[in-house]
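Sequence in, structure out. Go.
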Amino acid sequence: MRIALLANASVIHTRRWGDYFHARGHEVVLYSLEPGEGFPYRCEIVRSRIPWRFLRYPLAAGKVRRLLDRFAPQVVNAHFVPNYGLIGVAAGHRPLVVSVWGSDVLVSGRRSPLHAARARYVLERADRITTDAAMLTRAVCALGGDPERVLTVPMGVEPEPYRAARRAADGSAEAARRAEAGRSADAGRSGAGGGEGSVVVSTRKLEPIYNLGLLIEALPALVAARPEVEVQVVGEGPERAALAARAQELAGPRVAFLGQVPHAEMPGVLARAAVYVSTSLSDSTSVSLLEAMASGAFPVVTDIEANREWIDDRVNGFLVPLGRPDELAARVAQALGDPALRARAQAENARRIDERATWGHNMGAVERMFEELARSPREREWREVGR
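Output:
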C-alpha cells in the first residue's frame, strides 16, 4: 500500500506513525513544511518562505498536489486539522484520512467562528477521521465530522520497554537498600510504586496549554509535606525560563529541569519516578499519561474530560481540580507516602494498558481501515479523478 503522510516531520508522533507503516512493509512518503531527518523512508520537505502561518499551509497545497500526482498514493493521511488537514483537502487526492490530535479541535477549533469554520470545512470533506479519545470524537462530530466515518483509537504505547525499565529500577533500589541497611529506617524507600519513592516527574511540553505553573506553585506545600521529594521536569517550550526561575525561588534544588529527553530514553526516566504529574488544561488521550501508566508511575492529573477516560480517582490515580496547587500538593504527597496505593494502581494501570492502549494492536485497527480504503472500488475512482 502506498501511503502519503502529510504531517510535521519534527514531531515524535509523526515519526512513530510513519515508522509503523514502513515497518509493516508499506511504501510511505512523508510531506512536511517543517524540517526533519533520519527517517527510514522518503521525507519531502515542502519549502515555503511565507512567514504567516495562516497562509503558509493553504498556499503550499498546489506544490503538495504536484508531489502527490507523482507518487500516486492509495491513501493520503493528514495529521492536525488546521494545517495539514487543510492541505490534504485542498490538494484533492483521495481517499483522505484526517487524523485529529486534540488541540487542533479542542483549542484551535473553538478559538473563533473562523477557526471553527476552517475545522468544519476539513472534517466534512475527510473520507475517514481518526481520533484518540471518545471525548475528541464527540468534539469532531460537533464540528461536522460524520460519526460513521470516525475511528476512535488511542495511539497507544509499547508497554514492555517501560515495564523492563521499571523492573531494572526496582532491582537496583532493592540492592541499594540491602547494601545500606541500618543507615536509616527511611533510606532507599521505594516499593512497587516506583524508583526511590520520592521522585515526581512531569513530561509535558513547557507551553501554556500544559499549565506547568500549577505544579511549580504546588512545590512549597509539597516540600513541606515530603522534604525528601525530587521533582523532575522533562521537556522544552517557551515557558521554560520563567518556570525554572519560579521553581528555583520556591523549592531550590528539589526541582530539576532536564530539557528534551529522546523518546528512547523515556522508559528510564519514568522508571525512576514514583509519581507522574500532568497539569494540562486541555487534552485528548495523552500519550505521556499512557507511558506513565505503562511504567508503573502513579498518575496525579488534572480533572479534565480526557483524563477521566483513563483515571478513576483514588483507584488508579488521582484527579485534581484546575487552579488548586494545594490540592495537587496534597495528592502527590499522599501518593508518595503510600506504597500500597501505588502498587494497586500499578497493577490496575497495567491491565488498562493491555486492554485498551497497546501500540501494535491499536495501530493495526488504523492499518485495516487504510487497507479497506485502498481496496475499495471508490478508491480507484478517486485516483482517476485525482489525475
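Check: The radius of gyration is 22 Å. The longest helix spans residues 159-179.
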